[in-house]
Amino acid sequence: MARTRLTIQRMGKAALAAVLAAALFPLTSCSSDDGGAVPLSSSSSQTSGETAASGSPDDGTTSGPGYTIPEQLALSEYHADAATGTELGAFDLSALSQGYVGASAKSDARLKFQVIKDDMSYNYDLPNDGDPIICPLNMGDGMYSFRIMQNTSGSNYVEVAAIDQAVTLDSEFAPFLIPTVFCNYDESSAVVAKARELAAGAANSGEVVRSVYRWVVENIEYDSAKAKELVDATGYVPNPDETLKTQKGICFDYASMTGAMLRSLGIPCRVITGYVAPNNLYHAWNMVYIDGQWISASFSIDPKSWTRVDLTFAAADAGDSSTIGDATGYTDRYVY
């Protein structure tokens, strides 16, 4: 596939080392865990054949298919009337083709919702008061197993509800165009309004991503104190509107808010957590799908492919070395 040139002007707060690239590049690493997904196997996302250039400013032009802001959001919803199961554990399977599954349960004990396909298993904290959660079907088409697990003691859980179901997605992008548990928003969300403001007048999708990228880098501050507070925490769930309001956050906040903005604008966006060198620091970032190309600085990308976006690194100052990687590579662990 032919390569295209992608460039973005240098940001004022940090060198443009954060990348939109198909290869692997440096990032600011948070050491807090994402609180739940546990794969039975994982693999490195590192690819070869791409290198970052200097990041020098350019004319800032973009190219690609024309863009218009979607008139309606692609939303997700728990349909209680369609749920299968009981109060002890119920599954909403009515929107599997749209890229998500819902679960709810009531219990006096801690609960987990488990989504399994082949050798991968994602575990999500499930409220025990009956409030539902929406989780992405992020492992593509195939047979899924859904399990609600109840804590018995320590780290021991017992299955209280289960169901298997074949999934055929309407689109491979469906799970990454909707709000889910780690990328939550709705029509009234402040991040949606801000995203539409940033996308107003954009000529193409590349211009939209660049506009969102620049705004986040210029306005959101990396919260080193919060990162230290959460270093041993589990179960953390980002709140995109809260990040927008405070204009501060850790890597997971950056990735969640950016994902919410881009998804609400109809641009497929993955929220990814994993590890960055050195020392396998835990981190979160985004990948976006740009159907076309960007014209402007210093990164080579393949058009019509997933492209890595690490806003935390771009926005952070040199800062605390304990939360910053050294540019040697990413390893994807969980994809939401």
TrEMBL record:
Q: Which UniProt keywords apply?
A: Signal
What span is annotated as the signal peptide, if there is one? 1-31
Which intervals of the chain are annotated as region Disordered? Answer: 35-68
Please list the residue ranges that the record marks as compositionally biased, kind Low complexity. Answer: 41-56
Residues in Transglutaminase-like domain copies: 243-301
Keyword Chloroplast found: no
This protein is called Transglutaminase domain-containing protein
Q: Which organism is it from?
A: Xiamenia xianingshaonis
